[in-house]
Amino acid sequence: MHRAEITVKRLAPLWLSFLALCGNVAGVPIGGVYALGNPGQPIPPSVLQNRDVDGLALRYGWAALEPREGVYNWSKLDSDIGEAKAHGKTVSLSVLPGVATPSWVYEVGAAQFRFLWNQSWGKKPCVMTSIPVPWDPIYLSKWQAFVRAMGRRYDRDPTLTIIKITGVNSEAAEFILPRFGGPRGFTGWERIGCQGSDDVANWQHVGYTRTKIERAWESIAEVFARSFASKKLDFMVVPRGLPPIDNFGNLIPGANGDAIAVHDLMAWGSERYGNRFILQNNGLSAFSDMTELSAQSRHTMIGHQMLWRVTDDPHCRMNNKVTPCNPREVLEKAINRGIGSGASFLEIYEKDITNPDLQDSIEKAHLSLALNGHRHEAVK
After folding, report:
1. Could you tell me which of 238, 247, 289, 379 has the fewest CB atoms within 10 Å of its CB?
2. Structure confidence at residue 293 (pLDDT)
3. How many Å apart are CA 372 and CA 2, to the nearest integer?
4. E-assigned strand segments in the chain
5. What are the φ/ψ torsions at residue 79 (nearest 5 degrees)?
6. Residue 176 domain flag
7. What is the CATH number of the domain that holds 64?
8. Inter-residue contact 266 to 236 (CB < 8 Å)
9. What is the pLDDT of residue 18?
10. DSSP per-residue string spanning 239-286
11. Phi, psi torsion values for 370, nearest 5 degrees
């Protein structure tokens, strides 16, 4: 080997470290396979040691990080980021307010929206649950103060490369709110075991309009952008994740959700933040990939989170509940959908990443996503 080649090889890790320190401002490609774990749970060693895992998608609840106002508990997050760094992984981070909002926020006067839990996971069905009213000034003040504190601690850490813009949330970190009832209703209450409620009418009662939601999200996004000046900003969207209510507080005829607000904010974020802005869909499966994002991939980085895991799921949720389903075949179909849509990264559940029978699929995803990421950087 020539001396020049040896020098290049020796300098390559130093050069990559320099690029990492420059962060996203330098346009370093961010992509690949991200391991999606459970909030607050230990990261399996086999995930950290897997060379086909490029990053960790860390998830936390606000209450776990700020149990009392101005009193922060960063220890677990520090540890997770440290483990990622030690194993050469990058980190994306989402912190959920919504149902994970600490009780002290309400105690100081933030307005609450109450709804009945109707998910098959988490709380017991029909339990009355609270989230902050997203445009409430007390809530916005407390949430934005937390985001600033988090930015002061982590913005300069090159291991953290992606921060998720959260703040308008319910039970998950996507841009989603309780939305059942109204003209299309929700017919599953009898199956769940309770009479149910009309979320749409309740939102109208507290003064919901599309304009209020959009302005609240924009103000939150600005705080994220300033607090994490060196990071990519990820907007996790759901096609119709908001109640079907228009700019004037009126029902949208025949709709089961509001798609306009989502498209408004996708366009606003892309124009305002340019190549820092990422769009993410959290429902990738063998049968769905949110086609609205495919066209966006030409000028905006996009990513997907798997709808569910394929390992040990007798309900075959990743296969549209069609049984039987072969885990490897279903995962590969989902991966191919995501790659075909132009995604730069995929978030795959840890249970699938630790499944020995799926390692070939994870490796293929890692290699293909690397190509997608480079293509995206080349066309910007």
Report:
1. 379
2. 86
3. 32
4. 32-36, 55-61, 90-96, 112-116, 128-132, 160-164, 232-237, 277-284, 301-306, 345-349
5. -65, -45
6. yes
7. 3.20.20.80
8. no
9. 34
10. TT-S-SB-TTS-B-TT-SS-HHHHHHHHHHHHHHHGGGEEEEEEEE-S
11. -60, -40
DSSP letter at 356?
G
- pLDDT tens-digit readout, 226-267: 999 999 999 999 888 999 999 999 999 988 899 999 999 999
CB 281 within 8 Å of CB 324: no
Asked whether the beta carbons of 376 and 344 are under 8 A apart, the reply is: yes
Distance CA 280, CA 302 (A): 6
Name the pTM for this structure.
0.89
Is position 113 within any domain? no
Structural contact between residues 237 and 300, judged by C-beta atoms closer than 8 angstroms: no
Instruction: Tell me how many domains the chain contains.
Output: 1
- For residue 206, being part of any structural domain is answered with yes
Over its C-alpha atoms, the chain yields an Rg (Å, rounded) of 21
List the chain residues with pLDDT less than 50: 1-28, 374, 378-379
Tell me the three state secondary structure of residue 343. Answer: coil
> What's the pLDDT score for residue 191?
64
Domain span at residue 249 reads 27-103+133-182+198-350+360-379
Asked whether residue 12 is domain-assigned, the answer is no
CB-CB contact of 26 with 16 (8 Å): no
Contacts of 288 (CB under 8 A, 6+ apart): 307, 320, 337
pLDDT of the residue at 163: 98
SS3 224: helix
Q: What percent of the chain has pLDDT over 70?
A: 87
Q: What are the tokens at 231? A: 């990071």
CA distances from 180 to 21, 183, 188, 199 (A): 45, 9, 10, 5
Cα(339)–Cα(361) distance, integer angstroms: 13
Distance CA 202, CA 129 (A): 14
Q: Tens digit of pLDDT for each residue in 274-327?
A: 999 999 999 999 999 988 888 888 889 999 999 999 999 999 999 999 999 999
